[in-house]
Amino acid sequence: MQPIFATQTASISELKNNPSALIKQSDGESIAILNHNKPVAYLVSSDVFERMMEAMDDMALSQTVNARMNDGQTPIKVTLDDL
């Protein structure tokens, strides 16, 4: 059994036949694209994709900050005015 992380589903055939209608019908919600009843892709709006990319960038930056804070060196305090 495989979880589906969307409230709506569509087959690859539906996506091929009329992608614009499928996107319009989704009303901004994510769609799980199924092949033989198994999810093979997710169709998300550009807004959702951009937010996902920003969140991933934030997570990567947070990991860099944490690694640098724990590298054993004495931190240097800087104010925004110093920058």
From TrEMBL:
Top-rank taxon, per record: Bacteria
Pfam families the record matches: PhdYeFM_antitox
Family assignment from sequence similarity: Belongs to the phD/YefM antitoxin family.
PANTHER family according to UniProt: ANTITOXIN YAFN, ANTITOXIN YAFN-RELATED
Role this protein plays: Antitoxin component of a type II toxin-antitoxin (TA) system.
NCBIfam families on file: phd_fam
Protein's recorded name: Antitoxin
